[in-house]
């Protein structure tokens, strides 16, 4: 059956990174488990997949990632204690993560890059299109980016990447795409004609950067097996997608959904802190008091300093 006639039913979340930018916090705690307000970052990502209609999730993990498995497993002793106390609100919160999705795990073993992590998912994914969600990018639940990408893949086949406009002086931090219009009414969908992983400053094909959401045709696995290490000595998913973009006969075309919604980058310390503040301000239970405190804090910080 052609890949564009098959529904995407599985998601892959690469989670084998060491999180060195957050040391020493990540010495013993996976970076994916760092809290964003009161939920670990990884739970937001799984919840996004579920909202998009995918409830089969494979996490590609590495050493010291046991906490991920524990978080999405049942915590019987804790649940029993909360039940005895009659604290059904917290009991519901604790059970929510274990009931979110059918979560599976595979170890990457050698840290050979994102492309290799995706390749590790092949036995679980099989020969159907699948989604890949990176945990550093949190997409606001009000913006249905992944659902839109799944729709585009079903309609047009091949693979779909998410692109977002970035400042010209930041293109070297991302994979960047060369694109062409499709000539139809879908103004948020473009054809990808080339991809460059972290181009040298001033050489990017556009200011449209790949962010951490993909819907991939299963042919990507065969290409990844033949993709040599690229930038950083790692097997780059961008390099494999570039081959598909340049030669669609290998596994269908590559399309892009241009995202103009709310994205929270938790990839470095400053952006992580900003994400926490933004999401806390959005919360109905925390937002009013937190915003009032924040305004007062900023006013005091910006006020005159004592001599």
Describe the structure.
It is a single chain. The protein has 307 residues and is of the alpha/beta class. It folds into 2 domains: 7-267, Alpha-Beta Complex (Spore Coat Polysaccharide Biosynthesis Protein SpsA, Chain A); 268-307, no CATH class. 35% of the residues lie in helices and 22% in strands. It has helices spanning 41-51, 66-71, 76-85, 88-99, 114-119, 122-125, 145-156, 220-226, 237-246, 269-282, 287-302, and strands spanning 10-15, 35-36, 39-40, 56-61, 102-107, 130-133, 137-139, 159-165, 175-181, 189-197, 208-216, 254-258, 263-265. The strands form 3 sheets. The chain has a 9-stranded mixed β-sheet with strand order 5-4-1-6-11-8-12-10-9. The chain has a two-stranded antiparallel sheet with strand order 2-3. Helix 3 (76-85) runs antiparallel to helix 4. The protein is globular, with a radius of gyration of 21 Å. The N and C termini lie far apart (75 Å). The mean pLDDT is 89.
What key attributes describe this structure?
Spore Coat Polysaccharide Biosynthesis Protein SpsA, Chain A; NTP_transferase_dom; 35% helix; Nucleotide-diphossugar_trans; single chain; alpha/beta
Summarize the structure.
The chain is α/β, with parallel strands linked by helices. It contains 11 helices and 13 strands.
What's the SSE blueprint?
Blueprint (H helix, E strand, L loop, with lengths): L9 E6 L19 E2 L2 E2 H11 L4 E6 L4 H6 L4 H10 L2 H12 L2 E6 L6 H6 L2 H4 L4 E4 L3 E3 L5 H12 L2 E7 L9 E7 L7 E9 L10 E9 L3 H7 L10 H10 L7 E5 L4 E3 L3 H14 L4 H16 L5
Parallel strand pairs: 1-4, 1-6, 4-5, 8-12
Antiparallel strand pairs: 2-3, 6-11, 7-13, 8-11, 9-10, 10-12
Helix pairs in contact: 3-4
Catalytic activity: alpha-D-glucose 1-phosphate + UTP + H(+) = UDP-alpha-D-glucose + diphosphate
Enzyme class: transferase
Family: Belongs to the UDPGP type 2 family.
